[in-house]
Design a protein that fits this description.
The protein has 422 residues and is α/β, with parallel strands linked by helices. Among the domains are: 136 residues, Rossmann fold; 153 residues, Rossmann fold. Helix content is 44%, strand content 17%. The chain contains 14 helices and twelve strands. Strands 9-8-7-6-10-11-12 form a seven-stranded mixed beta sheet. The protein has a five-stranded mixed beta sheet with strand order 1-2-4-3-5. The chain is globular and about 55 Å long. 53% of the residues are buried.
Length: 422
């Protein structure tokens, strides 16, 4: 199960603390923190949707626009029953940091609707998607704020949103969202971009820590779009994936799981649970496995003060957003576990979203080989920049601290140049 969300951890407060800590470490002016501690704009809207039974149900929709000093706001839209305003604000902050780390010219944004798409029909999800864009359209635009898929949204949802926005503007504006189907301006390779980028970062992290990936033992939490793509790419790199969990359960085999067969099984059944040739495993057991690399690729607040002491992995590479609580971070640092943070590790999605946006603006599209080559270059550069930056710093900072400091330095310099702060 992946749904062990720690409700006592407020992600917005965590994000604010991370920014404040980085500002203090860098000795930046206090007004840098004041500009970054809250979103530039936060919008909450009632989203009325006609359900299949003819009744009107009103959902709550959110959009946070954190900071656009480096470029237009950018960030996914998630449909989830437990999403709230603070989660959206936190994710918009992390998106600003992620774009600065990845050196893509975007700022941070995030959107969400509090709903349970598993209990909705395709037509209801379409009507919800269109109504959300209609409600948020005054603050969106291909040069203003560009949404993308996130938890429980996909290319089809983006196609509906692009179509609705184009109707409002009365001209085609496919660049309003990224992560679209290829037929309406999508980018080849976007669906697997986060997972593929994550695999590149895992490869670089292993290289930096002198760990061979040949038969390296991997434990993976989460087997959605990110987790499944990562597993397949790691399999091609020679890794041995011994355990995988998802929201319904998990599977373990000390001799390794075939990621291609597991992906096929998951597509057929909807879960990795009861995969033939493996035994059941839960998250706490997965976190405690003797493995080389642990990849949390589910939801936030999964590695906590309770689970961190039992982790035996040499390297943790975060595929999810905010999977590690601050208390757990302290424990992992004391255990000398090398953690590659989410804002670096899972930036492949926004990187290829940037490629899609560029192609939409120019109406010229690259080949799959070109996309893959550009993604690998960006991910390798991002990892090496942060790793080198960390090694230049004193006081034994972590990769997470180094990534925040690296990003904050870029943001502070840009804000100073534009006259936003001293």
């Amino acid at each position: 199960m992946t749904n062990n969300k720690n409700t006592h951890v407020n992600p917005f407060q965590v994000a604010q603390h991370q920014i404040e800590h980085a500002v203090e470490q860098l000795g930046l002016p206090q007004d840098v923190y004041e500009r970054l501690k809250n979103p530039d704009r936060f919008m909450e809207a009632a989203i009325p949707v006609e359900m299949d039974d003819g009744k009107i149900r009103v959902f709550t929709g959110y959009r946070a626009q954190h900071n656009n000093v480096l470029g237009p706001y950018k960030g996914g839209i998630r449909f989830h029953p437990e999403v709230d305003a603070d989660e959206v604000k936190a994710l918009s902050i992390w998106m600003t940091i992620k774009c600065a780390v990845a050196q893509v010219p975007f700022g941070g944004g995030k959107g969400a609707v509090a709903c349970n798409p598993q209990q909705m029909s395709a037509k209801e999800i379409e009507r919800l998607s269109r109504r959300y864009i209609w409600a948020m359209s005054p603050i969106l635009g291909s040069k203003v704020d560009i949404p993308a898929p996130d938890v429980n949204t996909n290319a089809q949802v983006m196609a509906w949103m692009a179509d609705e926005y184009s109707k409002i503007r009365q001209y085609n504006d496919f660049g309003i969202v990224t992560g679209k189907p290829l037929e309406v301006g999508g980018c080849i390779g976007r669906e697997a971009a986060t997972g593929k980028g994550l695999a590149y970062v895992i490869r670089e992290a292993a290289r930096a820590k002198n760990l061979s990936l040949k038969n390296a033992v991997i434990a993976l939490q989460g087997f959605g779009k990110v987790g499944s793509a990562t597993a397949r790419f790691l399999g091609k790199l020679g890794c041995k994936i011994i355990a995988v969990t998802d929201i319904f359960g998990g599977v373990y085999n000390k001799n390794g799981l075939d990621p291609e067969k597991l992906s096929e099984y998951c597509r057929e059944t909807g879960s990795v649970k009861d995969f033939p040739g493996g035994t059941d495993i839960g998250n706490e057991e997965l976190f405690a496995l003797d493995c080389d690399i642990l990849v949390p690729a589910a939801l936030q607040n999964q590695i906590t003060a309770e689970t961190a002491p039992g982790i035996k992995a040499k390297i943790i590479v975060e595929g999810a957003n905010g999977p590690t609580t601050p208390e757990a971070d302290v424990i992992l640092k004391e255990k000398n576990i090398f953690v590659v943070p989410d804002i670096l590790a899972n930036s492949g999605g926004v990187t290829v979203s940037y490629f899609e946006w560029v192609q939409n603006n120019y109406t010229y599209y690259w080949t799959e080989k070109e996309i893959e080559s550009r993604l690998e270059l960006k991910m390798v550069e991002a990892f090496n920049h942060v790793f080198a930056y960390m090694n230049q710093l004193e006081n034994n900072v972590t990769m997470r601290e180094a990534a925040f400091m690296y990003a904050l330095q870029r943001l502070a310099e840009a804000m100073k140049m534009r006259g936003w702060c001293g």
